[in-house]
Amino acid sequence: MSAHPVLAVEGIDTYYGRSHVLFDLSLEVGAGETVALIGNNGAGKTTTLRSIMGLTPPERGRILFRGEEIQGCKPNEIRRRGVSLVPEDRRIFPSLTVAENVELAAAAGSTTTDVYDRFPVLDDRRDQRAGTLSGGEQQMLAIARGLVGPPTELLLLDEPTEGLAPQIVEDVSEVVEALTDDGITILLVEQNAELALELADRAYVIETGRIVHEAGGDELLHDPEVLETHLGVR
Amino acid sequence: MTVLDRLLDRSGARTDEVLGRRGRVALVLVFCGLAVAGPVIDVIATFWLHVLTRVMIFALFAISLDLVFGYTGLPSFGHAAMFGVGGYTVAFVTLGPTQNLLVTIATAALASATVALLIGWLSVRGTGLFFAFLTLAFAQVLYLVAFNDLPAQLLGADKITGGDNGLVGIPGYELFGVEFGGLFEYYYLTLVVVGICVALLIRIANSEFGRVLQGIRENEDRLTALGYDVTRYKVIAFTVSGTFTGVAGALYAPLVRIAHPSQLFWLTSADGIIMILVGGIGTLWGPMVGAAFITVFEEFATVVGNWHLYLGVLFVTMVIFLPGGIAGAISTVARSPREALSNARRAGRRYVRRVRGDRH
Amino acid sequence: MVGFEALVRATILGLQFGTTLALLVAGLTLVFGLMDVINLAHGSLYMLGAYFGVTLVDAGGSFWLALVVAPVAVGVVGLLMEVFTLRPLYGREPLYQILVTLGLAFVVEESVKEVWGTSAQNFAAPAVLAGSIDIAGVTYSQYQAFVLLFTTVLVAAIWVGLERTNVGVLLQATAHDPEMVDALGFDVSRVFTGVFAVSAVLAGLAGVLLGPARAVTPSMWFNVVLLAFAIIVIGGLGNFRGAIVASLLVGLLTGYAALLVPSYTELLVFALMAVVLLVRPAGIFGTATGDPG
Amino acid sequence: MIKILDGRDASTESERQHGRAGTTSRGGRSRRAFLASAGTTAALGVAGCLGSGGDTVKVGFAVAQSGAYTLLGESVINGFKLRVEEELDGQLGGRDVEFVSQDTEGDPGTGSSIAQEFITREEVDVIVGSISGAVASAMRPVIEDHVDDLVWLCPVGIGWQWPMDTPTDDVSVSCTSTQFITGDAYYQPSAPMADFAIENLGDSCVLAFADYSAGYQYGGLFRNRFEELGGDIAGEVPVPVGTEDYKPYLQNVDTSADFVFGMFAGSDAINFVKQFHETGLHEELDLSGVGFLAEADALGAQGDAAVGTYSALPYTPGKDTERNQEFVEAYQDVNDREPNVYACTSYDAAQVADTAIEEVGGTDANDIADVIPGIEVDSPRGYFEMTDSMPYHPVQDVDIRRVVATEGDAPPTNEVIDTIERVKAPFDCA
After folding, report:
1. Closest in B252, B260, B307 to D103, CB measured
2. A8: number of CA atoms within 13 Å, CB side?
3. Does residue D300 have a pLDDT over 60?
């Protein structure tokens, strides 16, 4: 392993059209780490992931992936370098079947990990249109799609448990844990702060486009001030 | 500040700046300039009275179209319908019962308002491009009705719309014994009518109602959530816009002495859209500048046989490099010439980047 | 008054006309479905196909050579158009693309006048297909029958290709969510360029195939462009199946209208467009998201 | 009239250089014009003193230069300029000529604006155009306001309307005292075909026409004459203008009739003829029509499909006269293309203007308008004479032509098979 962290975001400023969303934002994710990014709605969590992925490139600052600058790259180049995004709202292709969704993603690269072993629920529904899956199944499909294709070294997970029933949330967190065990580095955006902090080794708290806190996941989980002021948890 | 005002703040900055005090002063100056220049032009270059009259008419067409298109965010591809209906109504009235200016213009406005209400009411069921295509379809149906003189065929008359010949020989207007047949008189008539209409339109745009329209463009859902009947506002906006477009058509037909199906044809709608986009969409004043630019451009360009080539190149380069249209360019230069220069450089670099496949 | 036989004939003629329409709109609907681009220059690409075809045939090449080479050349023109004028506009309002493609249509028209002059060109159908055949009381030239067959096979191939092949899956996904497809590792701007070029090839193919039956003039783009748009709107914007079905529907409508109320054919097409948009705003096959399958 | 040829010696240097001496010289023309309009001598003298337009003649072309009429617009300009620049040393009636042109885009509003511009800004002495009837209708009121300022020459028979189904004798048209049609007057390329057809093609006809006013007018005049001669119209097939695929409409052609009379122009004519052939209708019926159906420009594109088509038109490029040969060669030299009927009628408009201006000795519109009626013109189509009463148009011979194949790769061409002499449109002014 190189001395570089897998991902280093260095002082980026990102705009949506004319509105300034991220301000001089920096963060790092080391190899094999699971790092959580938590904050209120509209704080800039999703934008951070989009910036890293090249979907909303920053106007200033650098993003280093394995020591190489990627902030000018197109999303598909970033994906081929090993960053994979499982986006908010899953954004699976509803009119395609499960198998087509998976094969499509696989076609962009060489990884042929048999995701159906990891997600048996999908195996049963290969020929079903993705739009007809339940929310949890769609989330599994979105993660599966993020794992095939070019080898994934860093997985950007955006709100994987949003809108899911508690039982399903558990399934998803199991999957995330399993991924961590397999050595995949994860940057996790999660609304459910408690869950995020449980899963994460470290966490950043983001507020109005700025990182306002950084600590180990457990630390933050037990810091009442953080919980109350930044996460609204009492 | 009410919530609504806040909601409108973002875009309000742009329009208020133009249609605020400074913009209105500029408009009044242009109006006075045209009024003073009339006799001078009449003596040294009579024909320019004709060009300027057309410029004013199309400025009214463009600003009224922009009220729905850019200001409210309803892309109408069918404004030719109202433009043409205005013209045909003038033909019916002046060739028939009376040449009285007030009666004729009022009838034309009423007729186009009715058509606009109908088309608007039906078309707002679709959003975005669907709205655009609905308006296009209705306008084309009207065009074909006029082209084939369907009314005459249904009623067994010799001619009503005059088919592809249109209705020729429209006389000028008359008011209190004054004839507006000559170009000089017609120029002033147009100046006054367009002046009043533009003032009204700006008034409407800056009113509470206008702010709602702008709100519809910015965030329709939020307005709905605030309890506004957005659909109704859209229909009213379309009707208001269509009425003024009809007045523009009512001024155009006597100028060219003919009401013709081509005034209902989709290319007439396209002309209006082109003026808006070239001038600067959503700014209300930009489209008027666009109308002047396009009208004068055609005036000079049609002397050469292949002028469509230049028109085509103009469209392509303007859209790519001047997305804000002429109004955008003027605003930037007025704000800061240095910034304009760096903007231009950035636009160039951005073009190269996009051509290379970067999507940002 | 109108006998059964006449109706059958109107049906056959309508379907045949619908097939040529399908050929015209196939590329247009792909581009709209994937890229949200309303390409007013599609008619111009069709026209270029016919002109390239005429030139190749005149230069001594066979029709069959022209049928291969001309569409490819049109594809290259389309590719250049996309790269230099449309790429800078993605993400902006579709309106701007309408204006740009209208500008391109003007440029192409004037260029054609410059190169080939203003008179109509003679595009002769291949001599092999000079004979005629009778189908259900309607006389077809063999060439017409060939175009019918060719188009049917082509359209069916595209249809199946969109549903069954990997490329088809990629295109469907791109139509639905290009950004996500990019994030999965596909260079979407190349996909767009490719689709636009293929659409241009299809337009060029239509030009070569229909050229021999039609007047090849610098304004031939204008006569087809609005009708083509009406069809893809009726079919559901950017929906390939819908566009094909709508082509046949408009063809049938034209067939019957030509028999019964010939003056009102066009009016009926736009009325149909309005009614379809009112009753099913997204078109016959359309979905709110636009899906090329 | 042979006298006119004696002016040859006076042909200018440039004419000789180009090897296409005009058959009419200035001397010859004056004499003819003088003979033709004996009553104008007095006016002549006065006009010489009051000549309004200065030393140059300004000619404005108001024709389409974009869209479907582009070729026709070009032909009008080329035909006129051929006469002026190549044969008259850049002069009309001995005065230098200045040209302006504007694109009407085939749009009536634009046409009206252009007329306005030509009159008030350019101060033209002569307007040439338009091509579209609707554009001409829109130009008319503007020009009528200025009949004292300019002369209106129409190379195409245009700008008249009358309700459908009007009996020919009842047709009344809008007349303007300074409007002179040098082309055809609706009646000429349509009705004479009826005379030919009833004798040669049969007495049962299907009328197929472009579904707009010109289609109804030309078609109606043919029908009236055909029925008058005892013929029977077995069916009417209107087809929308700009139709690309005629096959759905051609199903309405009653194949038990003897022949079809078609009224289509431009690309419509090409599509119609090609698809008429493609659907095999040519095996069952003869095809005839207004001359535009098988016009010189269309034949190249129509190819073999046009062979056998009968049509009527005052001008045929293949006409085998010396005058025409010279015209065709001269036109081809300059424009690299065979002239069409618009080139010829516009060339003749230049001849009319030249003769009249010379005779008047000035550019006063009223004086010119006074001398044009009755003028005789040595046209490539043959001699014709302008009517001496409104509506002013040529009394001319109409060719009945048949398209014949040529050897080799050359496109088919029209062969004159009959000529109906001295046809005049029996119209009154409204």
Report:
1. B307
2. 10
3. yes
**Which positions in chain B touch D74 (Cβ < 8 Å)?**
305
Ranges of each domain in chain B = 3-306
Q: Establish whether chain C is in contact with chain A, requiring a minimum of 3 CB pairs below 8 angstroms.
A: yes
Chain A hits for B358, Cβ within 8 Å: 74
- Of the residues C102, C115, C189, C223, the best mutation for testing chain B's interface (the one with the most B CB atoms within 10 Å of its CB) is C102
Determine contact: D408 vs chain C, CB below 8 A: no
The closest of D244, D142, D180, D203 to D372, measured between CA atoms, is: D180
pLDDT digits over D1-19, tens only? 222 222 333 333 333 333 3
Please check whether residue C178 touches A, CB under 8 A: no
Confidence check on the interface: ipTM exceeds 0.90, yes or no: no
**Partner-chain contact B256 D121, CB within 8 Å:** no
Asked whether D and A share 3 or more beta-carbon pairs under 8 angstroms, the answer is: no
pLDDT at D47: 37
C-chain residue closest to B314, CA distance: C103
**Chain D residues lying within 8 Å of B159, measured CB to CB:** 163
Binary contact (C237, B129; C-beta < 8 A): yes
Spell out the domain ranges in chain A.
1-82+153-234, 87-149
Instruction: Choose among D154, D117, D108: nearest CA to D135.
Output: D108
Q: CB-CB: which of B54, B168, B308 is closest to D137?
A: B168
Q: Between β-strands D151-154 and D179-181, what pairing exists: parallel, antiparallel or unpaired?
A: parallel
Domain B3-306 classification at class level:
mainly alpha
Domains and CATH numbers, chain D: 2-183+320-392 (3.40.50.2300), 187-313+398-425 (3.40.50.2300)
List Cβ neighbours of C157 (8 Å cut-off, separation of 6 or more). Answer: none
Interface touch C264/B148, C-beta < 8 Å? yes
Return the residue matching tokens 């309803």: B74
On the question of pLDDT at B3 being above 50, the answer is no
**Tokens 């989980």 correspond to what residue?**
A221
Pairwise CB contact (< 8 Å): C96 & B323? yes
Whole-angstrom CA distances from D108 to A63, B92, B164, D159 are: 61, 18, 10, 11
Q: What is the pTM of this model?
A: 0.88
Over residues A148-172, the mean pLDDT reads: 89
Sheet containing A185-189: which strands, arranged edge to edge?
A83-86, A154-158, A185-189, A34-39, A202-207, A210-216
pLDDT, mean over chain D: 84
The minimum CA-CA distance between A222 and chain C, rounded to whole Å, is 36
* Cβ under 8 Å to A: C residues 115-174: 166, 169-170, 172-173
Q: Specify the pLDDT at position D41.
A: 35
Closest CA in chain C for residue A90 = C180
Q: How far is B217 from chain D (nearest CA, A)?
A: 34
Interface test with A, best of C184, C190, C285 (most A CBs within 10 A): C184
For residue C166, the tally of other CB atoms under 10 A from its CB is 12
CATH topology for A1-82+153-234 is Rossmann fold (3.40.50)
- HEC sequence for B5-29: HHHHHHHHHHHHHHHCHHHHHHHHH
For residue A15, report the phi and psi dihedrals to the nearest 5 degrees. Answer: -120, 145
- In this predicted model, what pLDDT tens digit does every residue of B330-339 receive, in sequence order? 888 888 888 8
Alpha-carbon gap, residue B43 to D120, rounded angstroms: 11
CA–CA–CA angle C240, C243, C248 (5° rounding): 130
Chain segment C125-176, per-residue pLDDT in tens:
888 888 888 776 677 788 888 999 999 999 999 999 998 898 999 999 999 8
Sheet holding A7-16, edge to edge: A19-29, A7-16, A60-65, A68-69
How many distinct helices (H) and strands (E) make up chain C? 11, 2
